[in-house]
Amino acid sequence: MSLASGRAYLAIPGPSVMPEEVLRAMHRAAPNIYEGELIEMTAGLIPDLRAVARTKGRVAIYICNGHGTWEAALANTLAPGARVLVPATGRFGHGWADVAQGRGLSVEMLDFGKRAAFDLARVEAALRADTRHEIGAVLATHVDTSTSVRNDIKGLREVLDATGHPALLMADCIASLACDRFEMDRWGVDVTIAASQKGLMVPPGLGFVWFSDKAAEARRRLGSVPRYWDWTHRADPEMFYQYFGGTAPTHHLYGLRAALDLINAEGIEAIWDRHETLARAIWAACETWGATGPLELNIAERSLRSHAVTALRIGAPHGSALRQWVQDNAGVTLGIGLGMAEPGDPAWHGFFRIGHMGHVNAHMILGALGAIEAGLVALDIPHGTGGLAAAAAEIAAGVSRP
User: Quick one: 166 exposed, middle or buried, by C-beta within 10 A (0-12, 13-18, 19+)?
Assistant: First the structure.
């Protein structure tokens, strides 16, 4: 017998759960793209997008996924042959580096593995060694979705300032925006990228690039930029179609409007607090289960863990077996261990991830954790007892905090 009937719960780190308000907003006939409410609504999205990224800078909207925003950020700031420094802490740092190489950029990689955050001393040493200031940008992933590490973007700016290096600081916030605290202007970030399908709670298909005056000046110095990626008119359009380089992504925009309304109503500080409390509940359960079993959080240090996704090690074949059991019998879909091992390697089956970003609350998280504990029991995977009680205690403590 399966108990998976009913509404399924997608507990992967994006696409995230879509609120009913977003789904209702998108479930409508196609609008007029030449005049009327769509044009007015789109203009109103811009200040709210700036507020989510905590910036007074400009923002360009693209019809693409996060990989497209990697390309857009580079296309508008760096000419082929320029150097970039990429501190990588998982799959997505390497992915951005690959896009840079595809654009003809010279990549200097600092690989910190899959279980550690940036070593700022190594980054500083690399910048100081660049005495001719040939590095044009530092490409930094705030939260790596594969490893669940949360990197110190503010610390990177401090290193750049301490060395007097003029490189642009670019932050990939695809997994972290509207989940983990991020302050574009206060932290001195020049280019921020994100996408619609995670903390913004909209289906995949929209990409966003926020940029500072310094980044805008880099664009002006380039001269020619591929038409589609050029952020000049997208960020300051003379006509509506220039927001998108063509036809507007109409229904995504209605969904985004509904999502931003939800974010505004809750408040970004409260959203950050909610994500932190729910993440702590997950960590407490997993640490309790792992006390007498093979389950282990990929990032040992709590201060370095994302509040949007938790990557876990449990050993092969338990990771795949647990994911399958929970999906088939409890209606909860967990994330694969993306990038932790190659798919053909038997070790690939020893990892899984829990997504807890965007439209999530206490009962959703406790339900997912309950399904995981049931799977541990059903599959006879050794684990400590009291995981759900530990999670409940974290939620109770979080609610009681002012």
Answer: exposed
Radius of gyration of the chain (CA): 21
> How far is it, in rounded angstroms, from Cα 166 to Cα 41?
37
Q: Is the pTM of this model over 0.85?
A: yes
What contacts 84, CB < 8 A, 6 or more positions away? 74, 78, 97, 100, 105, 106, 107, 108, 135, 136, 137, 138, 139
- Output the pLDDT for position 93: 97
Which stretches in the chain have pLDDT values below 70?
none
Judging by beta carbons within 10 Å of its beta carbon (0-12, 13-18, 19+), is residue 85 exposed, middle or buried?
Answer: buried
pLDDT tens-place string over residues 127-149: 999 999 999 999 999 999 999 99
The amino acid present at 197, given as its one-letter code, is: Q
Cα separation, 52 vs 43, in Å, equals 16
User: Domain limits of the chain?
Assistant: 26-265, 267-400
| DSSP conformational letter for 305 | B
Q: Residue 352: beta bridge partners?
A: 312, 336
Q: What is the pLDDT of residue 1?
A: 86
Give the three-class secondary structure for 208.
strand
Q: What share of the chain is helix, strand, coil (3-state, %, to 5)?
A: 45, 15, 40
Contact predicate 30/250, CB 8 Å = yes
Per-residue pLDDT of 338-354, as tens digits, reads 999 998 999 999 999 99
26-265 has which fold? Aspartate Aminotransferase; domain 2 (3.40.640)
**Taking a C-beta distance cutoff of 8 angstroms, is the pair 330, 374 a contact?**
yes
- What DSSP string runs through 335-387? EE-TTTS-TTSGGGGGEEEEE--SS--HHHHHHHHHHHHHHHHHTT----S-H
Cα three-residue angle 387-360-305, rounded to 5 degrees: 60
Domain 267-400 classification at class level:
alpha beta
Place of tokens 């997208």: 234
Q: What are phi and psi of 311, to 5 degrees?
A: -95, 135
- CA-nearest of 29, 10, 23, 93 to 256 is 23
